[in-house]
Amino acid sequence: MTTAHELHAKGLREHLAPALRALGLVGWRRTFSLPDDTHWVLLGLVERPAADRVPFTFRLSLVRRADWAAVRRPDHRPDPRTRYGFEVWRARIGEVLPIGEDVWWEVLPGPRWQLALDDAVAAVRHYGLPELRRRAEADRTPTGETYLSPAELEEVNTALLTASVARVQRAELADKALVLTGAWTRGDGVARTVLAGAARGFLSAGDERFRTVRCRDTLGRELWVFP
Question: 224: Cβ–Cβ under 8 A, 6 or more apart, which residues?
Fold first, then answer.
């Protein structure tokens, strides 16, 4: 009997990769991207091989081409499965599905072994790619008033990097608040402490355009409000 590993390899080669390319993605093996002039719009296959099965899911990632060029990495393009710290947005596909939580597919031996692949492609088509396109366009045309120039933002990010905290990706003014967006998580105490200090610095400037500093993750979820 054909094993799950053999079917998985066959499925990637003969079904999944061609289907992703038919959706407009380009790439090979396990990383793909959508053509875009300003951003790397990325989709990466993540696998967790086991003895009798190969669970898989997708990692979505959005990186500005200018940011990628600035770090001068030798790679041709970013790997969506790798965290760099300067992504505009990064998530597993399950986070943008209606279920809102991690989703893994499995190719199992039997006559219906392709169903998992078809379902995964449908998730990319209907949810993954639209969300990537939406976020790329939103990053090109932010809704809030930009607060810091690229040079000023880089100064702030240098300080964050010293503390091993992910960089601020956007600093915008909206609804009397300075909104900072970055790849942080609510449980990251170090990030919260460092960003609280940064917020005090912003608020001490006495800028009448904002009264609070709000920190959000790259999914737009609010993490902390200072003061």
Answer: 186, 192, 195, 196, 214, 215
Higher pLDDT, 98 or 109: 98
Between strands 177-182 and 212-216, the pairing is: parallel
- CA-to-CA distance for 199 and 210, rounded, in angstroms? 11
DSSP state of 129: H
Which run of H or of E encompasses 68?
Answer: helix 65-71
Q: Where are the beta strands (DSSP E) in the chain?
A: 26-28, 31-34, 39-47, 55-64, 89-92, 105-106, 145-146, 168-174, 177-182, 212-216, 222-226
Q: What pTM did the predictor assign?
A: 0.66
CA distances from 78 to 42, 49, 69, 115, 152 (A): 8, 23, 10, 30, 25
User: Which is nearest to 55 in space by CA: 96, 128, 116?
Assistant: 116
Confidence of residue 23 (pLDDT cuts 50, 70, 90): very high
Q: Rounded to 10 degrees, what is the CA torsion of 93, 218, 44, 165? A: -130
Nearest to 110 by CA among 37, 219, 4: 4
Q: What is the dihedral of CA 90, 91, 96, 101, to 10 degrees?
A: -160
Amino acid at 126: H
* 95 backbone φψ class: left, alpha, beta (φ>0; ψ -120 to 50): alpha
Percent of the chain predicted with pLDDT > 70: 96
pLDDT confidence tier of residue 155, bands split at 50, 70 and 90: confident
